[in-house]
Design brief:
The protein is α/β, with parallel strands linked by helices. It has 13 helices and nine strands.
């Protein structure tokens, strides 16, 4: 197995902090998986795409679901097809290897090129899933008992694992990973992210949108706070809709682009009504005493 170490410096369309960039390069140098945590919408999945783009590598994505088993990522023995061929086909079904289909991890190991492997949302699977992958991720190989073949990685892939922290991961698994938590972007970083995706927006629009956005995120009682991806969609919608800066400040228009829960609509609209009513009272007091 060849080990290739290259330095990741980021890409033009993905703003990466120095700490995160260092974590990527340390995990690559040590040959350890990089476990990325952070609230939804902070760019965990996009990081893997950025690494692949920045290093000029192919990307393989293994999307994890609640029903996913570790075996699915290694290989699948298609017994149904073999049975069908034995009854109706003219294949030599004694050659079991033709019924072995590689999973995403198996594809990464057999790739002739150095690749990036994204194991996305590992916390969706059951608790045993991470532990079931310990040997394969450590040794970069796995055994296929049906054929007696051991599959060993030709190149150690850069493994990025994301988690939304829906459940705790086993300690034995955590010990084998380099860990990084992506904090939600501060306003200065967020402005840079918006400019990368929408470089032609007016600074005043960005400031007004961000002020409303961070105000919403600061409200207590929200079931789902809006994320970076929703802010990016919102500023684009405001531009397309020709919404005035004054309206953004007073009404937070097109709220459905930001908010996805009925209860959160009620919380925000209630606070907006209270806020606007207080401003009206203040103006009336200034005018009439």
């Amino acid at each position: 197995m060849q080990v290739e170490v290259r330095e990741f410096k980021g890409t033009a369309n993905y703003i990466v902090s120095e700490d995160l960039r260092n974590s990527v390069n340390v995990s690559t140098a040590l040959g350890r998986p990089l476990l990325i945590k952070g609230e939804p919408g902070t760019g965990k999945t996009m990081l893997a795409r950025s690494i692949a783009e920045g290093l000029g590598l192919d990307l393989i994505i293994w999307n994890i679901k609640s029903t996913t088993k570790a075996q699915d990522g290694l290989y699948v023995y298609d017994t149904v097809q073999r049975l069908y061929d034995s009854q109706f086909g003219d294949h030599n079904v004694s050659d079991i290897s033709q019924y072995i289909k590689m999973g995403k991890l198996g594809e990464a190991f057999l790739s002739d090129k150095h690749i990036v492997l994204l194991i996305d949302e590992i916390d969706k699977a059951d608790l045993e899933f991470p532990n079931d992958l310990l040997w394969e991720l450590d040794m970069m190989s796995f055994y296929i008992p049906e054929t007696g073949v051991t599959v060993t990685a030709k190149h150690r892939p850069i493994v990025i694992i994301t988690s939304n922290a829906e459940k705790e991961l086993p300690d034995a698994f955590l010990r084998r990973c380099i860990f990084h938590y992506i904090n939600f972007p501060e306003p200065e970083m967020m402005a840079r992210i918006i400019n990368v995706h929408h470089p032609k927006l007016e600074d005043k629009l960005i400031r007004e949108a961000m002020e409303a956005f961070y105000w919403i995120r600061s409200l207590s009682g929200l079931q789902k706070r809006p994320s970076t991806s929703e802010l990016l969609d919102w500023v684009q919608a405001l531009t397309v809709g020709g919404v005035s800066l004054e309206k953004i400040r007073k009404e937070v228009p097109l709220l459905g682009v930001l908010i996805k829960k009925n209860q959160d609509f009620d919380v925000i609209l209630s606070r907006l009504n209270t806020q606007n009513a207080n401003k009206t009272k203040t103006r009336s007091h200034i005018l009439w005493g």
